[in-house]
Amino acid sequence: MLLLLLGIIVLHVAVLVLLFVSTIVSQWLVGNGHATDLWQNCSTSSSGTVQHCFSSSASGWLQSVQATMILSIIYSVISLFVFFCQLFTLAKGGRFYITGFFQILASLCVMSAAAIYTVRHSEWHVNTDYSYGFAYILAWVAFPLALLSGVIYVILRKRE
Q: For residue 90, which phi and psi values (nearest 5 degrees)?
């Protein structure tokens, strides 16, 4: 049982790291000397150093992507906190429904953010020389992992 709890905690922390990195790092869309994320557009030199950074567009779809990514981090942190609280207060045989609910909510938020960005980024960057960066891919990887950990929390029963 201890190894199972340790595995679940490691999975949850890995999801949190993926969510933080994908939200913060400026690599959602890369190419042609530019790197963009949810917060700013940066141009880079041929050596890879950043030359200019401008704030991102104030369009509604980008703000919704920003908000849902932040919400996914908040829900995942709440889920981890509630898990530790329930670990010590839940009666024997009880299930971690609240923890699972918040983690599934976090997975749906990150999926919504990545899906909105996928559909709408062409309005922001008309140039076709761009490709998706690793932060965008990390957001998509965080979705099934967060969903999996949420389902595990719902199924998990507390034992002595």
A: -70, 140
Contact by Cβ (8 Å): 11, 149: yes
Rg from Cα positions in the chain = 18
Q: 32: which residues sit within 8 A by CB, 6+ positions away?
A: 127, 129, 130
Q: What is the pLDDT of residues 85-123, one digit of tens each?
A: 988 887 887 788 999 999 999 999 999 999 998 887 766
Q: What is the pTM of this model?
A: 0.85
Contact residues for 44 (Cβ-Cβ < 8 A; gap 6+)? 33, 34, 35, 50, 51
pLDDT digits (tens, 9 = 90+) for 22-75: 998 878 777 777 777 777 776 766 666 666 666 766 678 888 888 999 999 999
CA–CA distance, 37 with 24 (Å, rounded to integer): 8
**Is residue 72 a contact partner of residue 113, using CB atoms and an 8 Å limit?**
yes
Query: Token digits for 51?
Result: 């030359």
Q: Which two structure tokens, joined as six digits, stand for 27?
A: 């690599």
CA dihedral 42, 45, 50, 51 (to 10 degrees): -80
